[in-house]
Amino acid sequence: MKRATILIVATAMVLSIAFSGVALASQPVCPTPETERIKTVTQISCQGMVTEEEKVSWESSNEDLIDNPPLGVEEVVGKMDYYQDLKVTDGVTNFIKDMDVDTGSVPNLNVMKTVGYSQGATIGSLSHTEEVSFGVVGDWAYTEDVILCPFASAAEELIPASCEDVKASSSMVVTDVLATTVSKVGISESPLSLHYAIDATGSGGAGTPGVGHITAEYEVYVEDGSSGEGDHCGLGVVEEYTLGSKLTHYEKSTADGLWEFHKEMDYTSKIRPVS
C-alpha cells in the first residue's frame, strides 16, 4: 500500500446566536436549590483487552420537568448529555480520563481525555465513540426576571422564546493512535456554550500518522423569537411567538488510512448589545 499522510485541520468553528437586548447571554437553565457534583479520574495501562464506558445525563427546569409539554410561562428547560465508549480487543493501551459534572456552576460538564494505542504484533484494534450535546428551550420572559440590575434597565422589556439543540461527536477504529479530546458544556449560566476538540496522530506523537478510520461531526439547530420593541428591528409580537431567526448547521470530517487529525467545535449563544 502506498504510504501517505493525510492532514485534516478544521479550524475552530464558532457559532454565535444573537437577538436584541443587553450584552448578556440568552436564558440559562436554572439550577435547583440543591446542586450536585460528580468527579472521576481514570487511568488504564494494559496489554490486552480494555473496555471503558460512560453516560451522563442532566435535565433541569425552573418549574416541573414531568409536566411538559407545554412549557409554562417563563419556563426554561434544559438537558445535557455525554456518552463515551472505548473497546480494545488486543494490543497496548494507555488511557487517562478526568471527568467533572457540576449542576451548580459552569462548566456543567468538563471531560479531558488522552488515549494511546498500538496494535503491535497482535491483530487487535481500538474503537472509540464520544458524543456531547445540550438542548435548551425557553418560553418568553420578562427581562427583569432574568437579568439582574444594572443591566435590566438597559434591556428590552421581554426576552423572546428560544430553542437550541447542539451536538458534537467523534469516532475512530484504529490500529495505531495517540488522541486527546476535550468536552465542555455550560447551560446553567450565561452565555450558553459547548466546546469539543479532538487531536489525533500516530502513537509516536506529532509528525507520525494515525492508522485506521476517524470521523468528527457537528450539528446545530436554533430558533429565536423576534423582538417586539416596535423599532425597525423589533416588529414581532413576543407573546405570540413570532419567529425571528432560524439557524441550522451540519459538518462532518473523515479520514481513512494514514492521517493526522485536528478539529475544534465551539458554540455560544448571547444577546447582542442594544445599539
Topology order in helix (H) and strand (E) letters: EEEEEEEEHEEEEE
Domain module count:
1
Largest sheet: 11 strands, mixed
How many helices? The count is 1
Low-confidence stretches: 1-14, 16-25, 149-154
Mean pLDDT: 86
What is the radius of gyration computed over CA atoms, rounded to a whole number of angstroms? 22 Å
Assembly of the depicted chains: single chain
Shape label:
elongated
User: What percentage of amino acids are in beta strands?
Assistant: over 45%
Task: Please estimate the helix content.
Answer: under 10%
> What is the SS-derived class?
mainly beta
Strand segment count: 13
Distance separating the two termini: 60 Å
In short:
The protein contains one helix and 13 strands, in the order ββββββββαβββββ. The protein has one helix at 143-146; strands at 6-17, 37-47, 50-61, 76-88, 92-102, 109-118, 126-138, 141-142, 158-159, 162-186, 192-201, 210-225, 243-269.
Describe it for me?
- The chain has 275 residues and is mainly beta.
- It has one domain.
- The chain contains one helix and 13 strands, in the order ββββββββαβββββ.
- Strands 1, 2, 3, 4, 5, 6, 7, 10, 11, 12 and 13 form an eleven-stranded mixed sheet that branches.
- β10 and β11 form a beta hairpin.
- The longest helix is centred in the middle third of the chain and has 4 residues.
